Amino acid sequence: MKSITEKYWQKPLPFIPTIEEKALAKEFNVYPEIIKILSDRGIKGSRAIRQFLFPTLQDIADPATLKGIDKAAELVYETIMAGEDIIVWGDYDVDGVTATSLLVRFLRYFTSNINWFVPNRFIHGYGLHRAKLEELIYKSHSSSPLLVTVDCGMTNHEEIAYAKAAGCRIIVTDHHEPGEHEVGADVIINPKQNGCSFENDDLAGVGLAFYLAVRIRAFLKEKMFFGESAGEPNLKQFLDVVAIGTIADMVPLRRINRVLVKAGFEVLNSIPLPGVAALLESSDIQSGNITSEDIAFQIAPKINAAGRLAEASLAVELLLEDDKEACRKLARKLTRLNDSRKKECRKCLESTLPLAPNRPSSHDFCFVEKIDFSIGILGIVASQMVEKKRVPVILVAEVEDTQYGKVLKGSCRSVSGVNIHAALQKCGAYLLQAGGHAMAAGITLLPENFEIFKQRISEVIATIQTDDVRPGTVDIEMTVEKALSPETIQQLHLLEPFGVDNEKPVFYDQNVITQDIRRIGKDGDHLCFYKRGKFSNSKCIAFRFGDHDRLLRQRKTWDLLYTIAISRFKKAEKWQANLVDIIEC
Question: Domains in the chain and their CATH numbers?
């Protein structure tokens, strides 16, 4: 069935629960529809369902199976006992910020000789930076400080070689794809490296930082480090930032990641870190009912705004701060930065979107453009353009680099089926730097190489790009009234966290009579309307459907595809239907 947005959807068959589905629904005290949703996602049988709905930290993989982690724990122990300095080097995105704060907070239990640094996106760029490394090593009181990277390091072989020559011992923790050159660190902890038998290579950087903390604590315990006066730190207290960083980095929310985030939600809903509590307060989010969307659309953007428009160190400082009033001030500052970021993104999208060709009439399989906006917002705008154009998008802007002079730095965002990181590897001859994941990456290149790079990356993507005409997935037919009932909301919350590889269920409601249609939002980009019900009407919000208001008014009856979400305003919470698409009856 084709929607008013020109997308195709597979209409769900009428659901008649089987005897087994009824039995499982009774066992877990949920509707059979919940069992059907899980089954369609490959979660079948009592054991698998129980592990998915009620995961525990006992379900995570053994840290010892991470290649290099035992040696890393030993290096940290030796450094602590010798009173040497530890330098934690992170990244400026949410994953890097949360990973940095976690490791610094954890290590402060054992030593005061801790220094940390997250680079400035505009000055230092991603990863290790030679000049800043020189400064940090020079200021260190140790002849052999321990450098620990989080969420970076795999492509910094030159900088690591310098740090080694300067006397550093180095632990690299990173989850990005290894580069072509061998990394000369003392230890590398990366599930993607050769010879690592860890069962999940989709951990975020903050997840790896947590695993390192787990192994360090165990190693210290084995060495009888904890006496009667020095208790072991409770690692569960760090899981709120693990949940935030993992959701923000858009890694698959299955297996270990699901366990960590689910446990992190418990902390978020009870006793979050003071900095996290201040961010929740600034977002009008009340503890006790936090969702993955709260993290993705409220908390993570505020943390990210620090690195996009100012200094990412502001966000690290917030997560390391214990004074509540200081946390509130920092949270308000990040909120103001995020408001500015939104305005800048809107300007950038409005000026860039018209430059992109329309598919499927065009033969262009990606969109690559040089624009005159801050590199701090390119990734967000690229993601927004991917959503609208459904092709990989690469946006670059000119900046001054301390090493190369004038360069183009940019962000790449992809679509399902196109590994943008692999595509970039085939264009390495035209790039100074490239790194990232299958769905997102960053690049640096000389301005004179832009046109040839643009041509080459388009040719590469054309060879792997296929027109995805597969219909979108609708999970099950369910009326808006039933979906918004307290019982259904409670049961759907068991499926959280939603995200990559565990998307929010999409429901289908037939022959819906719509009324009171009006445009909302600053520029009328969105719609608000009500579904007429037998006893009461149900509120529906259609984000980015503002241009369809006239069409919806032409007829009153439609088939709706929707999800449900919490609407929060001035500490008030209300569940509503969020439109995904509309189909003519």
Answer: 19-48+472-584 (2.40.50.460), 63-332 (3.90.1640.30), 361-464 (3.10.310.30)
